[in-house]
Amino acid sequence: MTETESVVMTRDEIFQAVRSIMEEALGVDEEEVTLEASLTSDLEAESIDFLDIVFRLEKSFSTPDHPFKIEQGELFPENLLENPEWVADTKFTEAGMTMLKERMPHVDFSGFENDREVDKVAELITVNSIVDFVERKLTA
Fold this sequence. Notes:
Elements: H1 11-26, H2 47-61, E1 87-88, E2 91-92, H3 94-103, H4 127-139
Antiparallel strand pairs: 1-2
Helix pairs in contact: 1-2, 1-4
């Protein structure tokens, strides 16, 4: 492999690695970790678990030639309430929705457009969105 080549993994290989990470980080059974499973609603992840998941993803997908680094706020939303242009009355504004979609293209926000409750955004992060995130990052 040359220095310019990136690690090539199939989507299923990425899913299997993410599944293992979720099992270890969250103490859940393999059959619970489906692509549709929400990290918070279905797998009962808490904010402290997100740090562990980020660490495990970085470790699992890094190679000596290609470190897999996840920047703060890149995978999971952070510090959203601090910007009044993004959030008003506990709901995302148009600017907030635009920001979320730009920062987090791996998350499906289509069913969230009508609700926009800040407290519910974490429920949108699924195993599939983690797989999408890793897949995009590996092919970038």
